[in-house]
Amino acid sequence: MGIQKYKRVLVIGAHPDDIECGCGGLITRCIEAGNDVYFCVMSKCDNQFGEYEKDRLIKECANSTHILGVKTKIDIHNIPNMELPEHRKEIMKILEEKQKETQPELVLIPFINDPHQDHETVAKASVRTFRNNETILQYEILRHGSHSFTPNLFVDITKHLDKKLDALDCYVSQTSKRAYFNRECFKGLARTRGAQSGYDYAEGFLIYKMFW
Ligand SMILES: [Zn+2]
Prior knowledge:
Blueprint: E1 8-13, H1 18-32, E2 36-41, H2 56-68, E3 75-76, H3 88-102, E4 106-110, H4 117-129, E5 135-139, E6 153-156, H5 161-169, H6 172-175, H7 183-197, E7 202-209
Parallel strand pairs: 1-2, 1-4, 2-3, 4-5
Antiparallel strand pairs: 5-7, 6-7
Bound molecules: zinc ion (ZN).
């Protein structure tokens, strides 16, 4: 895939845990290759928690990205969780600013046909924004109610799996309430994508556009 060639990588998520779930392995590889990796998350999901712990996901995200080795500032916006479709214009504006600021060569986004309305909204706004020569890859978010993702690009994460799983473990607010959010499920998916591609463990992506 030539990860080294993508010097500036912008990773876009709707919610704080989307990115680690979909491409924590690839991000670790990019960082090890010396590339700059920028995070942009649209919602800090304040409305999920009571007042006393309303920054909980931000703290979990800070711990998680520290494990992955992200050195740039994590950019988390405050658009209400589950209401991203109603904030399309705001999201476009955030993405346009991010495009100018980071000038990415590789952009990682959620699956454009993801049944979750927030993931879909972010993905569609991204492909509208990044119309230059940015390569765009869609990543896979493992969750209940989503099963139609069929990758056409596989990234070997065998040596990076532990770091990805450790990063995801930081999201205690999610591991404690979602049956699919745990090491066994994430490892199982990585093994499946690996079995499909000849690696021990892999992440699957769907190419939206790619430049050679
Ligand atoms: Zn999400």
